[in-house]
Structure formats: structure tokens, C-alpha cells
Amino acid sequence: MLTVSGVTVSFGRNRALDGVDLAVATGEVVAILGPSGCGKSTLLRAVAGLQPLDSGEVRWDGADLNDLPVHRRDFGLMFQEHALFSHRDVAANVAFGLRMQKMDVAGRSRRVREVLGLVGLAGYQERAIATLSGGEAQRVALARSLAPEPRLLMLDEPLGSLDRPRREELTEELRVLLRRIGVTVLHVTHDHDEAFAVADRVAVMQSGRIARIGTPADIWHDPRHAAVARFLGHANVVAVGEGGAVPWGRLSVPPGPAVLRSDAFGRVDDSPPDAVDYVTGAVTDARFRGDRFELTLCTDPGDFDLLVRDPHPAAVTERLSYVIDPARISGLGTGEV
Prior knowledge:
Number of helices: 9
CATH topology of the largest domain: Rossmann fold
Order of helices and strands: EEEHEEEHHHHEHEHEEHHEEEEEEEEEE
Distance between the termini: 37 Å
Number of strands: 20
CATH superfamily of the largest domain: P-loop containing nucleotide triphosphate hydrolases
Strand content: 25-35%
Structural class: alpha+beta
CATH class of the largest domain: Alpha Beta
Largest sheet: 6 strands, mixed
Number of domains: 2
CATH architecture of the largest domain: 3-Layer(aba) Sandwich
């Protein structure tokens, strides 16, 4: 198990990591998710030994790693840029870590064939790096990280340089591959779709701290913090007052910050006056999303914009009414909405 305890890292006056605690079980895939500048890559570098700690500990199976140099941690690290050696062929790139381990030539050749087959590049040993597509280069970089059989694989935005269609395709391939290998993984990304697809658990970072950690379903349905909810794509964050008061009426939930999931709305013919868990408004924007429509509803009263997921189309300016499912409303921690 990887254990991070109270890790703090500062750059001048900027505290990049602020007392971070994290435990990753053997064979678990944990995604570190967050916006740019939140500290997720610094956390990865701290675990790898590339970034000295101001305070705190990094341990593996209880053994303190703080004074252990990078090359003795048996961790594999893959960056977004891939950093492949353009003057060497695929086999030489994949074998780089094996050479550092002083593995014999026959062993290196055998292991290179194994990992290239594992990432779907069987027979690519003699290919020049310049002839590879972006997706193929990404797989070669992954194979190079896997070749020395690391006890922890760390991926820093591994798909960040790819276009959206290729990224979605390789996200699925990466998920299947990591499950097949069974290696322990820390996967840094700013894309919550990627994190949800790949990880067993997701740690959402905000301002150098882990604000929320849990399974993808857990953090989506119960983000607990307004900043986490917004980062995950929940647009409907609202302050609920006494008696369930909200800008357009009332909700049957306790007072405090809350997030209304976009699938909490069921279209009805009309909402009764002063009814609880109902909303009426005018559509100000409508977007087709394949299996649904996403509507922006400006509430009446209140002029509050709500993002509504609806299986039925609607025209801009059309007035609609919805019943709101309280089971799809999650209370958030204290603080500003």
C-alpha cells in the first residue's frame, strides 16, 4: 500500500500541497483529479521522489521513502509529453528501464515483446518513433513505464495531448489494460470523464488539498463541496434558506448549500402555485446531446438559471414546468455558494 501522510510542499509563498493524506491499496487505480494549479502534478512528483517535501511522509508497505532516491523506489512514471527517444526505435525506447536494471539482452528482448503485445503494438520493435501516430507513441511510452514491472505506475495527464475522439478511444483501452495488469496506479488528470472511466476511486484536489475522495459514483452523486460540484460539471449549485427557500420557490431539503443534479427534473404540464419541489421558467438555451436535451431554464420567479436534462426537445422562449426529485439533491459543506 502507498500511504501519503501530511505532505506539504511550498514554492515561495505558494503552498502547492497543504497537508495531503492519501492511501492507495495494492492493485487499486486512484485518479487525482482537479483544475490546473491545484497541486495534482506536484503530488505525483512528491510520491515519485522528484519533489522534496517540506513536511509529511510517503510510505510503501509501511517503509519510509522520504530518503530513498527516485531510481530505488521501483515506481514507473509516464508524462503527457511521452519523452520518447526519437533517435532510437520502439524496442530501444521500451527497453530503456530494463537496461538501467542491467537485464541481459535476451531478457530485455523477451520483456519488450511481452509489453508491446500487452499494449496492442506487437511487432512494432523496429518502428522508428517518427513514424508513430500520437496514440501509438502514447502506447510506447506506457509500455516503457510498464517494462521494469513497477510496483506503482504513475500517469501524469497521459492522454492530455490527444484530440477528443482519440482520447476517448484510448481512455477505454487504458481502463481495460490497467484492469488486466493489476498494477497499482496513480493517474493524474483534469478530465473527470477520463478519471471516472479509469479509476476505482477519485481524489478531487482543490488548492493543494484533497477536497473529496470516493468512487466515481460517490463523488458525482455527493460532491459535498460547491467547488467540487462545479468542477465535476454540476451547474445547479444553490443556497437553500430556512424552510427550503430558493429563488424560485421552496425545496423539501435542509437549509444550506446544495446541488441539484441536472437529471432531478421531470417535466409536468404545470406547477401548482407555491408548491414545494416544483419550478417553472423560460428556456433560454437548448442543446442536443444524443440521448437527451440539455436546457437552460431561467426560473420565474427568481431569474435563476438551472441546467435541466430532458429527454424531450424544447424551443427557446418556451415556458416549461418541472417537478424536482429531492433524492437527486445533495447537501454541500458549509461555505460560499
